Amino acid sequence: MSNPFGIVADDAILEGRATDAYFERTRATLEHAGHDPHVVAEVTADQFPTGAFEVFAGVHDVATLFEGRAVDIDALPEGTLFDGGPVMRIEGPYLAFAELETALLGFCSQPSGFATAALEARLAAPDSTVLSFGARHVHPSIAAVVERSSLLAGLDGFSHVAAGEILGREASGTMPHGLLLIFGEGNQDAAWQAFDEAVPADVPRTALVDTFWDEGAETLFAADTLGDRLDGVRIDTTGSRRGDFRHIVREVRWELEAHGHEGVDIFCSGGLTPDAIRRLQDVADGFGVGSYITSADSVDFSLDLVEIEGEPISKRGKLSGDKRVYRTPDGGHAIRLADQPAPAGDPLLEPLLRDGEIVREPDLEAATERCLADAERVGFGREIDS
Fold it and tell me: Tens digit of pLDDT for each residue in 142-164?
């Protein structure tokens, strides 16, 4: 089979066939009428600032999508937090990009949702290791999108091997419950020892300690088995058996210290939310976050024409006219028409393409730094902590 998993191919996306049917019919209609006006289009989620900030992601894919098209694009730098107004501005002949709208919105909407949720998890435990464990909850074709969005938001790593190959990062992870189950109850030590003998030396010796017995008992069993080679333990107790998870973690810590194993980290995973992480951050050393990131709502971006042949225009409920957005000194967001005086603050839209040529290359590390700095500047998450 040429396409065994039914995944839309790269060339379909780049050629504009990954689109809604009405764009194909719009093209046919305009070409028939001989009408291809010069337009300005904007991508927005909210017309006016709302105070509820989200992380902008997916810019690098949009640049690739539009490369070679006769358009100019300005966009927020990836990792910028926004709460209203345009995040992207496209100018050029309408038929140069009409059928790309569907893919453009998909490239931004879902990654921005993932990144926003990952940022919430990151800020819930700013001094702890936080990893993305969510790839199993999405179609394999977008696993790298989840992991890249998580890195953009400041997470320390991720679990997906193929995503790591794409992103040039080593995937993290040690052992699943299946490994312990295969060795059998009472033989957890054999599983931990085999793991220690089999995997490369640079992989942390983190033992899963909640498969058969009480977490404290399995933790001490692992510590006695691996001794100084044990770097940490992972607690992934299912919710139906968890009870007071914080108490379980504190008990494990107590038993480790009581038996002279003070250098062992405790890593928690399994359906964790930012609220759960905040309750555990002072007793655990690291967290794996999965479904909270992957179940995040996509940001509801839309693309709208706001100017045709130099004249402001819009559909009902949208704001006409070519606009600019600014970060104000107090961390807010200001929106102005392009020909209005700029307010105090920093302009946020920056050139991405000029006449189809990419003029801003992607930089994931810079985007991460921007995201965390912007989160501090706009007070992202403070309403949760207050």
Answer: 999 999 999 999 999 999 999 99
